[in-house]
């Protein structure tokens, strides 16, 4: 049975932050600490290893955890970060979390792990209304499939998932835990709500 002690977590911070006016989202401050620091605080007790996928400000991220870049340099989206994460992880199972989701539950890894029964499955968070496609648990054996998909010029996460057995993991009891801070307004709203 898969346990969180056999999981590497990867914080996906490699995007361009277009909706955040080009800001490096993982380094934006929330309650006077960067988003990546909030995630590390929640993730570190849950898994065996935490890594950061980033494509800029690498030295700043290295102050928090080991950092690696995408294989290609054109900001190819979360799948490029996932591909790099599957290559760099110390464990066979890799839990991916976007850097703009600082409220993830303290039992995220355990609940994701308990959903898995086969290495060909991909567990993805479902909040009761929608999938949070970038918050996923993936086995490293799927790396060749992902590399082939990216080599074809494909970038859509859900289309790659459709090639595999997707397991939605029910987090309808904590839907706000997967709030994405995609805009300056959403960041301000979370600070004002004092959910930290």
From TrEMBL:
GO terms for biological process: bis(molybdopterin guanine dinucleotide)molybdenum biosynthetic process. It is found in: Cytoplasm. Pfam families: NTP_transf_3 (PF12804). Mg(2+) binds at residue 100. Its EC number is 2.7.7.77. GTP binds at residues 12-14, 25, 53, 70, 100. The keyword Cell division does not apply. InterPro entries: MobA-like_NTP_Trfase, Molybde_CF_guanTrfase, Nucleotide-diphossugar_trans. NCBIfam families: molyb_mobA. This is Molybdenum cofactor guanylyltransferase. It comes from Oceanisphaera avium.
């Amino acid at each position: 049975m898969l346990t969180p002690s056999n999981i590497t977590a990867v914080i996906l911070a490699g995007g361009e932050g277009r909706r955040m006016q080009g800001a490096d989202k993982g380094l934006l401050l929330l309650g006077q600490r960067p988003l990546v620091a909030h995630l590390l605080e929640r993730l570190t007790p849950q898994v065996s290893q935490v890594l950061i996928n980033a494509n800029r400000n690498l030295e700043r991220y290295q102050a928090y955890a080991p950092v690696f870049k995408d294989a290609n340099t054109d900001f190819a989206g979360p799948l490029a970060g996932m591909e790099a994460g599957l290559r760099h992880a110390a464990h066979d199972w890799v839990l991916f979390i976007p850097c703009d989701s600082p409220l993830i539950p303290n039992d995220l890894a355990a609940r994701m792990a308990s959903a898995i029964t086969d290495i060909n499955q991909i567990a993805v968070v479902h909040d009761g209304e929608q999938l949070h496609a970038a918050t996923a648990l993936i086995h490293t054996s799927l790396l060749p499939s992902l590399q082939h998909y990216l080599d074809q010029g494909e970038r859509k996460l859900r289309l790659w998932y459709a090639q595999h057995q997707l397991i939605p993991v029910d987090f309808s009891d904590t839907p706000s835990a997967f709030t994405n801070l995609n805009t300056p307004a959403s960041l301000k709203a979370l600070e004002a709500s004092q959910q930290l």
